[in-house]
Amino acid sequence: MNISTIRPSLYRSLRSAWIVLKLIIPIYIFADVLFYYGWLEKISFLFTPLTAALELPKEAALSIISGMFLNLYAAIAFAAPLGLSPKEWTILAVFLGICHALLVETAIMHRLKISRTYAVLLRFFVGLLAGWLVTFFPENWFGEGVFYNAPTFPSYETFAVMLLSSLQEAVVLALEVVVLVVLIIVFLDFIKSLETVNRYAKRVNTAFSLVTGTILGITYGAGVLISEYENAAMSTKEVWFVGTFLMICHAIIEDTLLFVIFGASAWVIVVLRLIFALLFSLAIVAYLTYRPAQSRRPI
């Protein structure tokens, strides 16, 4: 790969990274504002039916809502003092592993022409179904709890201080996204330029996007996915397959380890997320393939 071939890759990767950044920074700050004013805590009572369905203590409602709107670190910070059993930690991990950071990640999926309604409902109901399934697992499938110092929320003297801190954290995340997306897309284009790989380019596009998102997460993997989508390297069905899979199963290593250190079962979390991701991604492709042509419109 020479300079003339690298230049288009750099342009595409930076353009994709910029799209993701425009979504990450404002929504990241907005989520911090929600927490600063305590708005999430005020509506946590609405989630007590959910905790009951998952057989979690009602106090876990704030952990769930924080995870859904903010991130998994926020969820763990609220759940750590509750003295959850390994089984309860596993249930929480399965649900929130699928249904978390909805503000940011749903916006990213929308860039791929995947509707916000589909993204939110898919992740919520699949997370609920998978988490509810864990309630039927016998207790002896889970080990003893592991005690670990959970992350704590910083306290801010003023709104301006919070805003500055949030902006700094968002910028750091943004820089990580830019660097990683650029490296991955340039590497992917290099792989596709190889003569032996060229005939399998379609498979490379799909597989690479899938692996990137599954390991690194939607925030990072979406940059690659957006690039391939806008470059017409992936069909609509492939985008829906990968998008659906990643909404259910992404950042599988980091997300799982965050809960395993508190005693959650790694194999239950990983196996359930992979199975549900495969089933629902295959189902959406089947739907797109076999529905009547005249009824075909974006979900």
From TrEMBL:
Residues 18-102 form the Nucleoside transporter/FeoB GTPase Gate domain. It comes from the Bacteria. InterPro entries: Gate_dom. The chain crosses the membrane at residues 17-39, 60-83, 89-108, 120-138, 170-191, 203-227, 239-263, 270-290. It holds the Pfam family Gate. Keywords: Membrane, Transmembrane, Transmembrane helix. The lineage of its organism: Bacteria, Pseudomonadati, Campylobacterota, Epsilonproteobacteria, Campylobacterales. This is Nucleoside recognition protein. The keyword Transmembrane applies. The keyword Transmembrane applies.
